[in-house]
Structure formats: structure tokens, C-alpha cells
Amino acid sequence: MGAPVRPVRAADVPCLTALLDQLGYPNEPDAVARRLASILEAPAKQILVAVPDDDSRIDGYISVERRLPLEQDELVEITGLVVDSAVRRSGVGRTLVNAAEQWALRQGLRTVVVRSNVVRPESHPFYEGIGYERKKTSHIYRKELRPG
After folding, report:
1. Where is the N-acetyltransferase domain (predicted)?
2. CATH topology of domain 5-129
């Protein structure tokens, strides 16, 4: 079902940068490469990519992290899911989520959570359609700190 999935590689930076841009997160390739290098060194984090059989491009990626909040048992959180606009609604997203769930199980974890922004209403029925239940709605607040 769906495209082949493999772990991300440093050489994938140009494709990842283009996918981030499609989602409205423009980045410089150097910045993506720097962050990716840190992620590749972190055993509690994983990025998986969906590729065609010839591995000539990336059709989408999913990023996951092990999380241990104080208030509940350890779980896996999907921290990013992007599917190229040219292949959306083809099963790539479902394939990536399934691969992330399998990663969670290999980590010995049985709970996966995902946050879905209210400005992306098309993603809500996607997650509900693959068995995720809405647990709460919240706001995210951000503050940029200045040293000194």
C-alpha cells in the first residue's frame, strides 16, 4: 500500500526544503541541513520519507519523536507530516503514518499523538479517518526571547 518508505538522509535536504515551502514554511537549505543533522543524531527522533520505486524524489515526509511528559506515560508524537501537492490523496500520507506507527511499536510504545492546526481543516478528517480521536483543542502561544 502506498509508496516505499525509508529513513531520511542528509542528501534529502533539497527535497525537504521544497516540501516545507509547499506547507508555508520557507527555509534556507542550510538551515534545514543543520536541523536535520541534529535530528539524525537523536535516537528519540525519526524522519521517514515516502519515495517512488526509483527513489528519484520525495513524495512526503513524517517526523516523529518519543515524548515523556510528567502527566502520562511515554508516547510518540507526530511532529510533522507533509505530502507533496502533486501526490496528495493518493495514500502517501496514510503510508507515512503507518510507518510512523510501526516505528513507535518498535520503540515499545503504543500511543501516538498528533496536533493538527485549525488552519488546516483538510487534515482533521484525514486523521479521524485513520483511527485518531480528537482529544482536545488548545491554543499555542509563542514568545521570542531576547538575551539580556
Report:
1. 3-148
2. Aminopeptidase (3.40.630)
- Region of 131 (left: φ > 0; alpha: ψ -120 to 50; beta: rest) is left
Using DSSP bridges, classify how beta strands 45-50 and 60-67 pair: parallel, antiparallel or unpaired: antiparallel
Q: Residue 117 has what pLDDT?
A: 74
Taking alpha carbons only, the member of 71, 67, 91, 89 closest to residue 79 is 67
